[in-house]
Design goal:
By secondary structure, this protein is α+β, with helices and mostly antiparallel strands. It folds into 3 domains: 27-199, PAS domain (Beta-Lactamase, 2-Layer Sandwich); 223-327, 2-Layer Sandwich (Beta-Lactamase), CATH 3.30.450.20; 343-391, no CATH class. It has helices at 2-27, 47-55, 69-97, 118-128, 134-141, 144-155, 200-222, 241-247, 256-261, 271-278, 324-342, 361-367, 371-374, 379-382, 388-391, and strands spanning 32-36, 42-45, 161-167, 176-186, 189-198, 226-231, 236-239, 282-289, 295-307, 313-322, 348-350, 356-359.
Length: 392
């Protein structure tokens, strides 16, 4: 009997030591951690969990130890739906008062609440009695329904792990967390480790990248010229809408020389090839064919768009401006200039003060002046019959 009691005492002491060691291990982890038993009751939390609770006003005794995690998620989900219903109801009352027909959806509950919604937020706070704004409640309970389903799936042994990212903003800062649920067996029982990891920094980087991408998209969309990104094999890997409109929607995936000129080889003096070779910006005028088969004169400029892990140029951006109309106008002006220069009649271009800006060849032949000499004179120096009154 004594031996049996001694053995049981040793087992009990071993379990206490084991629990203490587990607690010390969990306390050394920066993530907020809770251990759930097979009924989803919280049996253990770590130091990071307690510190976060103290800093954020968690209204629960013993840091939620002894509470059921599934019930916590259910309550959070119900709070979220309740806030949404209240806000819809209040906004509906205001809408009816103003004889407006505005459809209300969850988009009105946003962290960055608009000035027009401030009165709705305040009225919800007054009626419901919550200290936090609607936005804060919605953020702190966002993901509750997904978490609830994840826990149930884990207990049903349908999945081994579950993960979800969610916002948890405070009045002073924006924060995001990642909750991970991991199922494990210990001493024949099912347990779940719940870990809340602060991913604010990576989330901010992600949001900044998205913002930068949106800015870049805006810049690209504002460029009126055709743009194509080309790899080292002269394949078009990306094209903007202007390029697709000019050369066809199936532009991406084609060889650039096939898409632009319907040729089988590189363009003569290919600027893309030059940029791949020396990394410099190059420009040149080329004859391309548009989607309808019409020949177009294109001013092309190539520059480095990207490099591989070894620093070698992997992609070149080619910007193409259609200058067909400009070239046509230039040729017309050149023709008109030739016609003026060679006509038998004398033609003067006179400034408002009577000084001569230009004369054609007939005037030079008739007067005997050179072009440099005659542009230093006034018209009445050549023809005295032209008075100052006429010029005025």
């Amino acid at each position: 009997m004594r031996e049996q009691m001694k053995t049981e005492n040793m087992k009990e002491k071993a379990q206490i030591i084991l629990k203490n060691n587990i607690q010390k291990t969990l306390d050394s982890i920066p993530n907020h951690i809770a251990i759930l038993d097979n009924s989803a009751t919280i049996v253990l939390v770590n130091r990071a969990w307690k510190i976060f609770a103290d800093q954020n006003g968690l209204c629960s005794t013993n840091y939620c130890v002894g509470e059921n995690y599934i019930e916590i998620c259910k309550k959070a989900s119900a709070e979220r739906q309740n806030v949404l219903n209240q806000s819809q109801s209040i906004n509906s009352e205001k809408t009816n008062t103003n004889d407006q027909n505005t459809e209300i959806d969850e988009s009105i509950i946003d962290y960055k609440i608009t000035a027009a919604d401030q009165d709705i937020t305040q009225e919800c706070k007054e009626r419901i009695g919550w200290d936090l704004s609607i936005n804060g409640i919605m953020e702190k309970t966002e993901g509750a329904e997904e978490s609830l389903k994840g826990i149930k799936d884990i207990f049903a042994e349908e999945i081994e792990t579950f993960s979800i990212d969610y916002p948890c903003h405070s009045p002073d800062e924006k924060r995001w967390f990642r909750m991970n649920l991991i199922r494990f067996d210990f001493e024949g029982n099912l347990w779940i480790l719940v870990s809340h990891e602060n991913i604010t920094q990576s989330k901010l980087v992600e949001l900044n990248l998205i913002q930068s991408e949106n800015k870049l998209k805006g810049i690209i969309q504002s460029v009126p010229d055709a743009m194509c990104m080309i790899d080292r094999e002269q394949n078009i890997v990306w094209a903007n809408d202007v390029a697709k409109k000019l050369y066809g929607s199936s532009l991406v995936g084609q060889k650039c020389y096939r898409a632009y000129g319907r040729w089988n080889n590189l363009c003569q003096n290919c600027i893309v090839h030059k940029t791949f070779r020396d990394g410099k910006v190059h420009s040149g005028e080329y004859s391309h064919f548009d989607l309808d088969g019409n020949e177009r004169i294109i001013l092309c400029t190539s520059s480095v768009a990207g490099c591989d892990d070894f620093g070698n140029i992997s992609h070149v951006m080619e910007i193409m401006r259609d200058i067909t109309d400009k070239k046509r106008n230039e040729r017309f002006l050149q023709f008109m200039q030739f016609a003026v220069d060679t006509t038998a009649d004398g033609i003067y271009w006179i400034k408002p003060d009577g000084s001569i800006k230009y004369v054609n060849q007939s005037v030079l032949k008739y007067t005997g002046y050179t072009e440099d000499e005659i542009t230093t004179l006034k018209v009445n120096n050549i023809d005295p019959n032209v008075s100052e009154d006429v010029l005025e």
